[in-house]
Amino acid sequence: MSKDPEAGSAVIEILFVTPVLIVLMLFVVFCGRLQGANQDVRSASGSAARSASLTFDGAGAHRAARATADRTLAERKISCAVLEVDVDVERSGGEGQGGLSNGDEVTVTVSCTASLADLSGLGVGGARTITASATEVVDRYRSTE
Questions:
Q1: pLDDT in tens, 108-121
Q2: φ and ψ of 143, to 5 deg
Q3: Burial 1-12 (b: 16+ CB within 10 A, else e)
Q4: Three-state secondary structure along the chain?
Q5: Is the pLDDT score of 34 beyond 60?
Q6: Full-model pTM
Q7: Residue 79 to residues 72, 91, 118: CA-CA distances in angstroms?
């Protein structure tokens, strides 16, 4: 009775291939969560721009944009080590008195520096800064207070 020289080789192949497949699957999950975080920051910038465009002055626009970005990211469970919210107002009729006028454009840029360990849930080290901008027009038909 002779033994087959390839007997048991399938088990050895599975032992070598399984860890590679697990690492590949975890990498796909990591990439998906990173893309989800990018979408969440984009959503926060859009919400913040809309919120800022509903205010009547520049200071109110900054406060509203920051509060909305904070709230949106917290709801989506994105924790930023550093969160920067920049509000830029482009005047439709030249420079005004600091108040937002109908037709002005409000651009909000949200930059979130998040830990990759938090984003991935896999204990990956490092941090990533995710930046997104959104622009909203101050409604031409809104009340003026």
A1: 999 999 888 776 66
A2: -75, 160
A3: eeeeeeeeeeee
A4: CCCCCCCCHHHHHHHHHHHHHHHHHHHHHHHHHHHHHHHHHHHHHHHHHHHHHCCCEHHHHHHHHHHHHHHHHHHCCCCCCEEEEEEEEECECECCCCECCCCCEEEEEEEEEEEHHHHHCCCCCCEEEEEEEEEEECCCCCCCC
A5: yes
A6: 0.78
A7: 11, 33, 8
